[in-house]
């Protein structure tokens, strides 16, 4: 079954363009000038049941607008769109009961309530039968190991703990499709990894279709078999994530923290991105990762080392240039 089908969907926003200064404000009272912004441009995408898809692109590429159209928050300006056979913007009850959306920057929890009471409230909102509610709640609470957090006020939870609760709330009613917009934003490495493990498990064990938007290439690489890259509202890549990385990712980012101030050598082909007395950040060709690691470990007093995937911006640039 096709979970998502879009044909040439386009979203044009119209925004008021104010002229500078007081005179501009007064002029604006009589004659308003608007500018048009095409946030999503003739976008086609098909998603099958059970897929785990990554939606990637730089700031302002149009990802959130796309997710908003798919979840019915806004309607497209033109084009055809269906999610599980529904036109999302009609917001039919049967549609709402089959999808969930989690936005890393926006919470749907009730901060004054405890996590337990919040879940119960969502049980009522979604009319989840008692047996199913208990089964799902226990399953997810166990999976995330958050038993001891259930009776504390949501406002006291850390960012990572709150995100776990957001996901449990979103999945309580067994949605067939889950839209995630930056679920690991601001989280540390441990919490991000826990979230990733959880999402992988949900997709595999429950067959939930997941569309994930993230700036973090680690999330995409670890979770999404297929990726869609968006740039200026247009799709510029749609295919295998592994291929995307093999073809277009050329370097990694290595951060080395030293025990004390040192003057380290920098291997050739590496570019210094940041340097302080006890910290060095390098851009290194991805095939040289091991060699570069070897040149530091055992040779310098190292406190910690981190290796990250290349930023999406550089990958997008290469897709564009075709290199
Ligand atoms: N309500 C709006 N009115 C006018 N323009 C908008 C509106 N919402 C978004 N835009 C513009 O549409 C473009 C796409 O925005 P969108 O939020 O979809 O991008 P994004 O890929 O999600 O970015 P980010 O990663 O920064 O969240 C941007 O140029 C943005 O300024």
UniProtKB/TrEMBL annotation:
Q: Say which family it is in.
A: Belongs to the ABC transporter superfamily.
| InterPro entries reported for this sequence | AAA+_ATPase, ABC_transporter-like_ATP-bd, ABC_transporter-like_CS, ABC_transporter_ATP-binding, P-loop_NTPase
The answer on whether this UniProt entry bears the keyword Nucleotide-binding reads: yes
Provide the protein name.
ATP-binding cassette domain-containing protein
Sorted UniProt keywords: ATP-binding, Nucleotide-binding, Transport
Q: Which PROSITE patterns match?
A: ABC_TRANSPORTER_1, ABC_TRANSPORTER_2
| UniProt entry tagged with the keyword ATP-binding | yes
What the entry lists under Pfam families is as follows: ABC_tran
What molecular functions are annotated in GO for this chain?
ATP binding; ATP hydrolysis activity
Per the UniProt entry, what species is this protein from, by scientific name?
A: Sporofaciens musculi
The UniProt entry, under SUPFAM superfamilies, shows: P-loop containing nucleoside triphosphate hydrolases
The residue ranges crossing the membrane are none
